[in-house]
Design brief:
alpha+beta, Barwin-like endoglucanases, six-stranded mixed barrel, 6 helices, 8 strands, about 30% helix
Length: about 220
């Protein structure tokens, strides 16, 4: 006669192993799902970036939307102007520079800014998709910031002349609000700028414009 005394123990052990296996599988699936969601959220707009029209103090709201810009240390307006002047001497780059004396104080990223000088620039537009960015259409700018930074209101420039973090205002773009330089492109050289729009169709409507662009500097000089 077979000894049956150990069968309940074997069954309990088998059942316990099955339950542990199911728990491990569920945990692995949860981690994988979380990783996918985290990757997707890196390119998704923050809720604070979606509301652009209701705030009474628009420049302060823009500063909130531009929180990531604070991590990009911009050159001072004087340093940028010196860089442009040196480049003008070294290369045949055309710039019309007008230094501004009467300072209009605005606020960007919670700090007071004033106009430093004005440049005449050739301004085009682009979108974050493959039709403008090709294989680099990953939702991340050359400054390693999301295209959603500052509510998707940002500029690509020749960063030899206008470094990342430089603050500009461009007639007709974002209602003339101050926007940061956070991107660059192979065709954006010298006195050319590219303003970002969410779709290729909207970018095409901008066309090519020759515009007076104001470069802003922080009042505290930092």
């Amino acid at each position: 006669m077979k000894d049956m005394t150990h069968k309940p123990g074997r069954r309990a052990f088998t059942l316990r192993m099955m339950m542990e296996g199911l728990a491990f599988t569920a945990a692995a699936a949860l981690v994988a799902t979380s990783a996918v969601m985290a990757k997707q959220s890196a390119h998704a707009p923050a809720l604070a970036m979606l509301d652009r029209a209701e705030a009474p103090a628009r420049e302060f709201v823009a500063a909130t939307r531009a929180a990531d810009v604070a991590r990009v240390a911009p050159a001072s307006a004087e340093e940028t102007l010196n860089t442009i002047t040196d480049t003008l001497d070294a290369e045949d780059v055309e710039f019309e520079i007008v230094e501004l004396v009467d300072a209009e104080i605005r606020f960007f990223n919670g700090r007071a800014v004033r106009p430093a000088y004005q440049l005449t620039m050739i301004v085009t537009a682009y979108s974050p998709d493959h039709r403008s960015c090709g294989i680099w259409a990953d939702g991340i700018t050359a400054s390693n910031r999301s295209v959603w930074t500052n509510g998707m209101k940002l500029v690509a420039a020749d960063t030899r002349l206008l470094p990342f973090g430089t603050l500009l205002s461009i007639p007709g773009y974002d209602e003339g609000r101050i926007v940061p330089v956070l991107d660059r492109g192979g065709a954006i050289k010298g006195n050319r700028l590219d303003v970002l729009y969410p779709t290729h169709e909207i970018a095409l409507k901008w066309g090519v414009q020759r515009l007076p662009v104001i470069v802003w500097e922080y009042v505290d000089g930092e």
